[in-house]
Amino acid sequence: MTLTAPHPSFSHSNDYYLGYARSITDDAIPEEDVHLTITNHILYLTIKGDPLDIHVEQRLRERLLRTKYFQTIKIHYEDKINTPEMTLPKPVEEEKPGLDEPMPSGTIYNAPIADPKWPRFSVGYQNHFKKNHGKSIYSLSFGENLALFRHKNNSEIYELGIQAGLFGAMDISSNPTTLINSDYFVGIGLSIVRSKKWQNMIQFSHLSSHLGDELIVKDPTITKKRINLSYETLKWLTAYKFNSLRPYLSIGYIIHRDPSTIKPLTFEGGFDYISEDKFIFHTTRAVAGAHIHSWEENKFKPTLNVRAGLQLENPVWQGRLLQGLIDYSYGKSRHGQFYKQKEHYIGVLISLSS
């Protein structure tokens, strides 16, 4: 005689699946006022205000469709006129009581793809066309952008956050491997997003630069050229999202600096591109970015950084994107006190970013 354990069968009501959908919307778009209804296995979302970013909407649909219960997800924005194919049942849920959120997931100011000094986790290899302190350079960064508090007011979202990062460069063509430079960055920023498209950040930051000990041992004369580069910068950053394209600009002023003789004004600009369509098991997008940095200390001679490659994402993996990129740079060095030296390299980079 063979005994088999019974297999329980659960029949869930619409209320169960409404709770399931609500948990996803609260996690994916917590700042939005969303009404949910279910009719004949069709989930209707009514969102007050401006349309979601196209990539955010795609990830939301993918998460909701992971259950086989919903046949279709239909999203309606309250300030739009209903189309014939979008006839919505009357929402029955109450409006969200609160619009403040401490320690929210993700950040509302998107990380620039090609900015080499944006805090993120990355590892890369650079082949320099002209040898300065090394021809084969191993680049690394450890950094994070954390949102501390978020508030939504009508069509605007405010977010207070902190940023911190360590940026290093090592010569792997030498024996032993030589640490060339490491830059330490910490900042606090107030981000403001209007209509889900116009992103702004006011940032106050500190950066200090330190020579690698192996480099000093290898070339003791370099200590005579060393400067104690350290400064605090007040910066305004602004960006606008056109679906897949996001151009941005920033202006910075170095308030306190060591040495005091360095010039204070900086300009930066560029664009990010993230494809709308996904491929390779619907997990991958094509991405690209260009970033230009211009500093008064270098007579505003620009440094160009260009990156392009693939971005892997998972709708459940909130706030993090894995990128494999070709990395190209031409212009003045962004490695701390080597800012007066020219660099020209091409390489590869793996980046984990928000």
Give me a quick take on this structure.
It is built from four helices and 16 strands.
Description:
The chain contains four helices and 16 strands. The N and C termini lie far apart (58 Å). A twelve-stranded antiparallel barrel has the order 5-6-7-8-9-10-11-12-13-14-15-16. A three-stranded mixed β-sheet has the order 1-2-3, with helices on one face. It is elongated. About 7% of the residues have low confidence. It is mainly beta. The protein has two domains: 85 residues, 2-Layer Sandwich (Alpha-Beta Plaits); 252 residues, Phospholipase A1 (Outer membrane phospholipase (ompla), Chain C), CATH 2.40.230.10.
What is the topology?
Layout lengths: L13 H15 L5 E6 L2 E6 L6 H11 L7 E6 L22 E3 L18 E8 L7 E18 L2 E16 L6 E17 L3 E14 L1 H6 L3 H4 L4 E11 L4 E14 L6 E10 L9 E12 L7 E10 L8 E12 L9 E12 L1
Parallel strand pairs: 2-3
Antiparallel strand pairs: 1-2, 4-6, 5-6, 5-16, 6-7, 7-8, 8-9, 9-10, 10-11, 11-12, 12-13, 13-14, 14-15, 15-16
Q: What is the first-to-last residue Cα distance? A: 58 Å
Low-confidence stretches are 4-10, 80-87, 90-98
Strand arrangement across the biggest beta sheet: 5-6-7-8-9-10-11-12-13-14-15-16
**What proportion of the residues is helical, as a percent range?**
10-25%
State the major sheet. 12 strands, antiparallel, barrel
Q: CATH homologous superfamily name of the largest domain? A: Phospholipase A1
**What is the CATH fold-level name of the largest domain?**
Outer membrane phospholipase (ompla), Chain C
Work out the strand percent. Answer: over 45%
Shape: elongated
Q: What's the number of structural domains?
A: 2
Alpha-beta content class = mainly beta
The CATH architecture assignment of the largest domain turns out to be: Beta Barrel
Summed up, the helix count is 4
Please tell me the overall pLDDT: 87
Output the CATH class name of the largest domain.
Answer: Mainly Beta
Order of helical and strand elements: HEEHEEEEEEEHHEEEEEEE
Any idea what the radius of gyration is? 24 Å
Number of strands: 16
